[in-house]
Amino acid sequence: MHLLPTSDEVVRVLRESGALRHGHFRYPNGLHSDEYLQVPLALRYYQHSRVFSVGLSRMVRSNPELRAIIPELSIVAAGPAGMPVAYGICEALRARQVYWAEKESDHAPMRFRQYLEQHPGEQVVMVDDILRSGSRLTEMKNLLESHGAKVVAIAVVIYQPTPQTRSFGDLPLYYLAKLGQSYFAESGACDLCKRREPVESVWI
Question: What percentage of the chain has pLDDT greater than the value 70?
Answer without folding.
Answer: 95
